Amino acid sequence: MAAITNFLSRFDVTSLVTILDIQIALALVIIALLIKGVIARIIIGIVYKITKNTKKARESEMYSPIKKMIVFLAIYVALYIIPKGERTAYIITEVFKVIIIIFITKLITTLVHSDSKFLKKFLKKSEDYKVNDFVCKIIRGLIWLVSCFVIINELGFAYKITGLLTGLGFASAIIALAAQELVKNLLSGASILTDKPFELGDWIEVGEYAGNVIDITFRSTRIKALNNTVITIPNSVITSEYVINWNRLRSRRLEITLPLHLDTKSDEIKKIVKQIKVVLASNPNVIADTIQVNFAGISDSSADIYMFMYVNKQQYVDFLNVKEEVFCSLLALIEKDNIELAYPTQTVYLKNNSEGEIK
Question: Is the entire prediction scored with pTM above 0.70?
Answer without folding.
Answer: no
